[in-house]
Amino acid sequence: MSFSIKQTWIECIGCGFQAELLQERKFKCPKCGNLFDIKHNLDLLEMYPAGWTQKFDARARRTDLGKTDNPLFHSGVWRFKEWIMPYLPTNDIVTLGEGNVPITKAGKNLLEWIGGDIDLHIIQEGMTPTGSFKDFGGTVMMSLAKTMGIKTVCCASTGDTSAMAAAYAAKAGIECVVILPKGLVTPAQIAQPLVHGALVIMLPGDFDDCMRVQLELTTNHGVFPANSINPSRIEGHQATVFLLAQHFGWELPDWIAAPVGNGSNVSSIGKGLRLIQEQLPNIGSSNILGCQSRAANPLARSWNLANNGRWDEGVDRRNFWLEKYVDIECGTTTATAARIGAPVSRDKVMREIALSRGAMTVAQEEDLNQAVFVCGRDGLFVCPQTGIALAGVKNAVKNGWIKAGDRVAVVSTANGLKFTESASENPDRRMIDSSDCSVESVLDLISAYS
Amino acid sequence: MSFSIKQTWIECIGCGFQAELLQERKFKCPKCGNLFDIKHNLDLLEMYPAGWTQKFDARARRTDLGKTDNPLFHSGVWRFKEWIMPYLPTNDIVTLGEGNVPITKAGKNLLEWIGGDIDLHIIQEGMTPTGSFKDFGGTVMMSLAKTMGIKTVCCASTGDTSAMAAAYAAKAGIECVVILPKGLVTPAQIAQPLVHGALVIMLPGDFDDCMRVQLELTTNHGVFPANSINPSRIEGHQATVFLLAQHFGWELPDWIAAPVGNGSNVSSIGKGLRLIQEQLPNIGSSNILGCQSRAANPLARSWNLANNGRWDEGVDRRNFWLEKYVDIECGTTTATAARIGAPVSRDKVMREIALSRGAMTVAQEEDLNQAVFVCGRDGLFVCPQTGIALAGVKNAVKNGWIKAGDRVAVVSTANGLKFTESASENPDRRMIDSSDCSVESVLDLISAYS
C-alpha cells in the first residue's frame, strides 16, 4: 500500500460514496453507478501560496536537465506533482517527458478571423510524446497502474487514447491491449499502437462493439481501463490550468476554451481551476467555454435548450440542463476525435461548466475547418478539434460573452499531423499543375497565382 | 542595411572569396562555384565565457513567458542569438517558438539493442512546429529573408523542407512556392504546404526535374532559396550543439550522431562545435558520427574507401576522401527523407567530420527499421532517419569507436507521425483478428498472445 485513504481516495460524484483508490478496478460507483473523482488531502502538505509558486517555478527553471533523472524537473505535468498525485511514490512515475508544451500568442490572421480585440493564446497540447493532450492524463494513469501492480491495460479508442496507452504502457513495461474495428481504421491510426508494441485486436464490428467489449472486460474481468472513466486521467489533465497560470505569472486567463468529445478536458480544467483557486486565493478566475461540433453536440445542444442565453447569472442550472439532455446519433464531421454522441464524462462537464460560470457553444462545420486553415496562414498547424474550440471562441466574441480585452486560452488538443487528409482538402488551397517541366512555365504560374 | 560586412559576411568554403550577405541571392561562389559559410565577428560583442552561459541560462529560466514577446525567451534557437545571427535586428525575427525540444535518456530496450555500456541521449527535433529539425534553420532563413526584404521564397523538397518553408513564410507574410512532382507525393506530404497557404506547383516530372527548376529559379531569376544551399539555414541548426551543451551543464557529449541526407545537420553540428569551443574553451569536444542508409550512402561509402578504419588518427584526409567520392543512384529505403545520392552540403560534411575527428557509417535497412520499433517499445516514436543514426551508433559501439562510458547524443530529425506507413509494417508487430465481437473471444486472444 503506497498511500492511505486519509491521503488520497475516490469519491462518487453522484452520491458521495468513498472508497480506496488502490483497490479500485471498475471505476463505477457500486451504490449509484456514477463516475468517481480522485480526492487528496492537501492540508497534510502544509504549504502556503508563495511556497507553491516558488517550488513550481524552481522546477521549471532547471536548465541542466541532463544531470538529473527526477521527473519533477523533466515533466511539465509532474512539475505540479503535489497538486496532481501528491502521495504517489516518485519512483513509480512513468513519464515520457510530457507537458512542456508551448503556449503561443494567436497570429494576426486568427485574430482578424475571430474579431474583437481579445488577448488570445493557444496551449499546444499536440506537442507531446504521442501528439495529443492525452499524454497529460496518460502519464498519471500509467503511474497509478504501476503503483497498483497492474499487468495489463486496455482501451477501445481508435485514435489518440490508443496511441497514448500503448506508448506509456511500453515505458512502464505493462502489457497494453487495443481493441479496434476491423476495416474502419486507417494505417496511420494503427501505426502508433503497433510501434509501441501493443496487442492490437481487430473486431468484426464497429466502434460501439469495441467499446462494449472494453467496458465488459473492465467491469467483469478486472482489466484496467485506459479510457477516461479512469479518474486518474483527469488528475493529469489539470496541468493545463497550472501551466497556463504559471505562463501568465500566476494569473488565470478570463476564459479557457476547449473542444468537448468524451469531456475529459473540460472535466479536468474545472477540477484544476477549483484546486488552484483554493491553494492560491489571489489568482483570479476563468470561465470555461466548452465547444462542440454541429455533428456531435449533445452537451451544447442541451445547454442551449436549458439556458436560453441566461448563462452569466451564476445560477447553477445543472438539473434543468440534465433534464434537457439526450444522447444523439452523430453526423459527419472532420473533427472525428470529438465525434461522440454519449460523452462518458457528461456529468463532470456539466458540473465544471456550471461552477466556473462558463458556457457551451456549437461550432459550424464550415467554421471549424476554416479555423484550421486560418491558423495555417499564421504558421500553426492545428487539428480539427482545435478548430471547434477556435470557432467557439469566435461565437462567444460575437454574442458578447467574451469581451474586448479579455485574455482567452484555447486548448489545442492534437498535432495537425494526425489529421492531414482533411487539412489538404480546404477549398482555399492553392495547388496548380504545370504543363511541362520548364522554368518558363513555372515562372508564368508564379506570376499568375502569387 | 541592417548589418555591415564587418559584422556578418559570407565566405566561400573553397576559395575564401568574401561578399555581403544581404546582397546575396544565388548562394554560390562566383569565383569557384562552391558553397558559402556565414561568418560573424563575435569579438565585437566583447563577451567572456561565464557571461555567455549566464545569459543563455537566464533566458531558458524565464517561466512567465506570457508577459513577454521577446523571441530570445520564447525560442530555443534564438536563446543563442549572439552565436547564431548576432547582428540581426530582433524585430526582424520570424519565430514559431521552435527549439524547446526535449532531450531524453535512451530507454532500456534501445540500450540493450545497441549494446555496450554507453550514456545515450536523444534530442527530439521532431518536437518542433512543423515536426522536423528543419525549423531550427528555417526560423533563421526566414528572418534573414525578412531583413533582406524578400517577397518570395521557393523550394523543391517533397517533405520536411516544404513544410518548414511554408509555415515560416506564412508567419513572415512572405510568399512561398513549393515545387512537387505530380503523382509522386502522398496527401500527407502536401497537407502542410497547403495548410500554410503556399503556392504548390505540380510538375509532370520527377523530383530531379523539380530541383533543377528550383535551382534555375534561384541562379537566373533571383528567387530566394529555402533549401540548404542557403547558408542561413546552417546557422540555426547549430542550436542543436548549444542546446545539448546547456542540457549537460555546459559540457559537450563525447559523440553526436546524426543521419546524413543533404548534409545540413552534420554541417551545422560541426560549425556549432567549432564556435562553442572557441567561446567556451573548457567545454570539451565531441566527435561527429555521420550515418547513412545502405540505399543512399555516397558519403559513408567513400569515407570507408578512403579511411580504411584509420578514422582516429586525427589526420585530415579530406582530399583522399574527395578523390574516392562519387554521386550514387539511390536504392530503396524507408528513410526517404535522407534518400539523396548527391548531397548539396557534401564538402561541408567532409570538413566537419574531419575537423571533429569523427567518422561515417552505413546503417543496414533492417537495422534502421528495427531501431524504430525498438524505440517504440520504450514509448518513443522516431522517424526512419533517426533509425539510421541509432543503427550507426550500434555499429560504432560494435567496432569500438564509441567506448563504454561515453556520452552519446543522437539527433532525432523528425516526428514519427510523418512516417506512419513504414512504422506499421514492422514484422514484429502484434495484430490479430477476433472471430466475433464477444468478450470471450477477446479474452481468449489476450491470454493466448500477451
Descriptive notes:
- The structure is a homodimer of 450-residue chains.
- The first copy, chain A, has a domain of 219 residues: Rossmann fold, CATH 3.40.50.
- Helices cover 40% and strands 15% of the residues of chain A.
- Chain A is built from 18 helices and 14 strands.
- Chain A has a six-stranded mixed sheet.
- In chain A, helix 11 links the parallel strand 10 and strand 11.
- In chain A, helix 11 crosses helix 14.
- Chains A and B meet through strand 4, helix 6, strand 7, helix 7 and strand 8 of A and strand 4, helix 6, strand 7, helix 7 and strand 8 of B.
- Strand 8 of chain A pairs parallel with strand 14 of chain B, so a sheet runs across the interface.
The strand order across the widest sheet of chain A is 4-5-13-10-11-12
Corresponding CATH architecture of the domain at 103-129 and 233-424 in chain A: 3-Layer(aba) Sandwich
Distance between the termini of chain A: 66 Å
Major sheet size, sense and barrel closure of chain A: 6 strands, mixed
Chain-wise SSE layout:
2 copies of one chain form a homodimer.
Chain A: E1 8-12, E2 18-19, E3 36-40, H1 49-60, H2 71-74, H3 81-84, E4 103-105, H4 108-114, E5 119-124, H5 134-148, E6 152-155, H6 160-172, E7 175-181, H7 187-195, E8 199-203, H8 207-221, E9 224-225, H9 232-237, H10 239-247, E10 255-259, H11 264-279, E11 287-293, H12 298-307, H13 318-324, H14 346-355, E12 359-363, H15 365-376, H16 384-398, E13 407-412, H17 420-424, E14 430-433, H18 439-449
Parallel strand pairs in A: 5-13, 6-7, 6-9, 7-8, 10-11, 10-13, 11-12
Antiparallel strand pairs in A: 1-2, 1-3, 4-5
Helix pairs in contact in A: 5-6, 6-7, 10-11, 11-14, 12-13, 15-16
